[in-house]
Automatic annotation (TrEMBL):
<feature type="domain" description="Peptidase M20 dimerisation">
    <location>
        <begin position="235"/>
        <end position="335"/>
    </location>
</feature>
<feature type="binding site">
    <location>
        <position position="215"/>
    </location>
    <ligand>
        <name>Zn(2+) 1</name>
    </ligand>
</feature>
<comment type="similarity">
    <text>Belongs to the peptidase M20 family.</text>
</comment>
<keyword id="KW-0862">Zinc</keyword>
<protein>
    <submittedName>
        <fullName>N-carbamoyl-L-amino acid amidohydrolase</fullName>
    </submittedName>
</protein>
<comment type="subunit">
    <text>Homodimer.</text>
</comment>
<dbReference type="Pfam" id="PF01546">
    <property type="entry name" value="Peptidase_M20"/>
</dbReference>
<feature type="binding site">
    <location>
        <position position="150"/>
    </location>
    <ligand>
        <name>Zn(2+) 2</name>
    </ligand>
</feature>
<feature type="binding site">
    <location>
        <position position="115"/>
    </location>
    <ligand>
        <name>Zn(2+) 1</name>
    </ligand>
</feature>
<feature type="binding site">
    <location>
        <position position="104"/>
    </location>
    <ligand>
        <name>Zn(2+) 1</name>
    </ligand>
</feature>
<dbReference type="GO" id="GO:0016813">
    <property type="term" value="F:hydrolase activity, acting on carbon-nitrogen (but not peptide) bonds, in linear amidines"/>
</dbReference>
<feature type="binding site">
    <location>
        <position position="115"/>
    </location>
    <ligand>
        <name>Zn(2+) 2</name>
    </ligand>
</feature>
<dbReference type="GO" id="GO:0046872">
    <property type="term" value="F:metal ion binding"/>
</dbReference>
<dbReference type="Pfam" id="PF07687">
    <property type="entry name" value="M20_dimer"/>
</dbReference>
<keyword id="KW-0479">Metal-binding</keyword>
<dbReference type="InterPro" id="IPR036264">
    <property type="entry name" value="Bact_exopeptidase_dim_dom"/>
</dbReference>
<keyword id="KW-0464">Manganese</keyword>
Amino acid sequence: MNIRNKGNGIFKRLIERYDTKLDKNGICGKRIAERLHTLSQIGLTADNGSNRPGYSEDEARAQELVSSWMKEAGMEVRRDGAGNLIGRLAGKRNFLPAIMSGSHVDTVPNGGHFDGTLGVITALEVVEAWKHEKYQPVHPLEIVVFADEEGSRFNGGLNGSEGMIGGRDIEAKKQLIDRDGYSFSEVLQQRDLSIDSYKNATRDMEEVALFIEVHIEQGKRLEKENLPCGIVTGIAGPCWLEITFYGEAGHAGNTPMNDRKDALVAASEFISKVNQLPGNINDTAVATIGKQLVEPNGVNVIPGKVTLYVDIRDIYEQTRDQLVEKVKHLAETIANDQQLKVAVTEKTKVKPVPIKKEMQDLLARSIKEQGIQPFYLPSGAGHDAMIIGEKVPIAMLFVRSENGISHNPQEWTNLADCVQAALVLKSFIEDLQTDWEDDNLS
């Protein structure tokens, strides 16, 4: 296929300003660009975005393409019962726990071409570089393409990584229904999987030494610092609160201002004050109100009931929970002051995953080796690393996102930054094994 002649592809834009002097240590920018482009053609939308839902035919096609690249690079390839694609490169001491890297290739509807995909391509590029250099790692390396990370199909993702570590509520997953009316079980069957295969996909994570994920930042911190990549300090765990203010609906014209119980006025005060709370906790905590329902929702009716949803996140569980309690207390205080009732319900609560300083320090060393100033930042979004991190040590490298845009056809990361990330990943894995080897000899 002549990649360069693809008019609707991303290859030309990736390569046109790329300086090939950045190619070194076996890492090839053109190969990264070609592979990002080729994957972008699977599930391509009219807006030049990407649409590869989890457990869809297009996700399967993308995994199959990556599988072919893995085999060409000399990896043994298999797929587990949760739909995860796993490529394994034998190590000199193949009995040792594997170093694992990767991400996902499913997307949100009309999403971008770098989210998840870049983590898969950079991990594979490390193996290609080793092939060029005739280098064999001491520990085996596994590249994983996790299934259904985004969750666009069932409004809840990370199903592939959850299947790998096990321990999840299978009965709850059986109740999942996609927008076409297919159950989780039926969707698995479409991919030659089953509930039983999903349950049996649970892996002995003692076989894995650590997991490192490369991912686009999906924010603007690195861009503001003018840095190609940065070190993730932790992955925030969300807590979602449903808060309902109960007032009294009434006629907008005949009810005096001093005789109202307006639920929307209470909710408005709450929204304004919630925005001020995270800064009193720490600089990694955030709170967002992105959904609100007003009843009866009439132009000439005083709102009698307002339900809103608060998304609270932090990379530290203790401070996240402190913020949750402050938000609850604020809702109760406002309701009391305005003589309303309020109901607060926790809808979901996921543990944050702080990344060990040891892993951050090792990644910082690899970044310095590439002449980059280490920069530390939290991940507000969830990732497969968050799930795998429940069982094994993790590290995470963010790569600069242009204008912070993600989950959008305009999502973009320059090829030079992609290459820098691949070089850092390669250095990290090689240095890590050298350190382990020295520890064993000392």
